Amino acid sequence: MRFLSLSALLFASTAPAAAVAQEIADTIYSGGPILTIEDALPTAEAVAVKDGRILAVGTNADMVAHSGDSTKVFDLDGRAMLPGFVDSHGHVVLGGLQAMSANLLAPPDGEVTDVASLQDSLRNWLEANADRVARVGVIIGFGYDNAQLAELRHPTRDELDAVSTEYPIIIVHQSGHLGVANSKALELVGYTAETENPPGGVIRRDANGDPDGVLEEYAFFGALVPMLSGLGEAGMLAFARAGTELWASYGYTTAQEGRSSPEIVAALHELDKAGELTIDVVAYPDVIEARDYIGDVHSKSYDGHVRVGGAKLTIDGSPQGFTALRDRPYFDPVGDYPAGYLGYSAITMEQTTNAIDWAYANGVQILTHSNGEGASDMLIAAIAAAQKKHGDREIRPVLIHGQFLREDQVDTMQALGVFPSLFPMHTFYWGDWHRDHTVGPVNADNISPTGWVRTRGMMFGSHHDAPVAFPDSMRILDATVTRRTRSGDILGPDQRVDVMTALKAMTIWPAWQHFEENDKGSIAPGKRADFVILSDDPTKIDPETLDTLKVMVTIKDDEVVYEATTGTKKGQLRTPSTRLGHTALHLLQAGIGSSDG
């Protein structure tokens, strides 16, 4: 970064002869376009900051009254400054797990295109990490996607056995809701031909009735838990450290741990007390597993950089993995599915109603994962019943994902005051798959229906759900504006929004989602000095090039926490190899955060 002299900043400005005494800024930011995300003053020349808070926003001349001998001037050098990004939904602690796993992603994020290349990636990783594997006793791979494999199917137990029969192997689907285990891993968890499917999960089987290695939802989570149980507290701290560094490298100054646990929250607090947590994290422990804990500790105030913001509920699974609960059959599911297959819910209607009722009764914000139309019907019914019983408690309930929403459901959610945190990155990663297999060409145009939401004047959040998708803020921005698929198709032209709307969905609207709109999400006096500096002004470039923008600097409370020109964190973490998704709950069950791990 460059700091200028005050005279360089104010060369064309003259202080008033009788200026009223003003607070002197610690830092003045100037020298490039500043997008405030404030409708009343959308752009500015300069911003003054003191004690981590914004003093003034305006012209260079306006800053004269706030400049003193000790004031530093941060030169934007022509680059664009925006408010720091607020994570509408992600899993920041689990986002650090890629350091311990093999990268099984398809291009452009990896090199896996078929089963053979997946096997090669696992073998190469095993060779490069032989000491780590011997110590931990397990091989983990992340990010494979059957939709991107030439075979258009999941790998099998036998194909993983070809990599190793000595070590248990478990690989995680990019959705985070499915995975594949080799014979050693299946033996370790005790899955046999006699094992019944767990509630909310499926053990796929071969012609003889034996597990073929592919595991869905709670069957998968039940296998993953033993694989990770040896990592212990040190492993959880490593995840938290790497995850928050990764989020900061993409301009996030507030991250979310969107299906958390008491152990994960404890690791975040420990990291914060050690001075290693440089951005804020809002955690939402699972309401089924940690209800009493949430009731005791949820708060709108931070303890350092950490707070428990409320609860998380998960109703169904993965739309691209055919485990989301629909209200109609999947269009052309790839695999051995019965006629009229709708997917399934992970929990019962009774559990859903009970969890939502508890949240309203106790004034606890609740975030609910609901992908299929059937799951969203369950959520809507539960919220309507809770509001009828308890009234509107101003808890700002949040829908997470809502990939297959019907338009009437959007109307109902607006009436109920549900905030939609949508996932437009799906249009890039799985848009072609949705068009051809999950919902078909007509309904695929309406996945992540940001257009429907804005037509009704609703706010929304755009999220990455990392590590399900990499927390690349510019990929989010690009997908929300262009909705281009991997093949270049535009999925739902009427659902596209303009660049400023997409930026609001990454800043001020998710700040509102988190009850933090008075502190974050825009550049205005009194708010925190949380900023991101981009390589160019996203409102001035060709929208088709938004994904080429780079995060150059991330600033939290007037302190640089990431800088691309001198830092190496982003370069170290840029190669994505994690798509764990919704497994924080199951790490809790594994006791990863415990001292005896």
From TrEMBL:
Residues 72-562 form the Amidohydrolase domain. Coiled coil: none annotated. Residues 1-21 form the signal peptide. The keyword Signal applies. It comes from the Bacteria. Pfam families: Amidohydro_3 (PF07969). GO terms for molecular function: hydrolase activity, acting on carbon-nitrogen (but not peptide) bonds. The keyword Signal applies. Gene3D superfamilies: 3.10.310.70, Metal-dependent hydrolases, Urease, subunit C, domain 1. Keywords: Signal. This is Amidohydrolase 3 domain-containing protein. It comes from Shimia aestuarii.
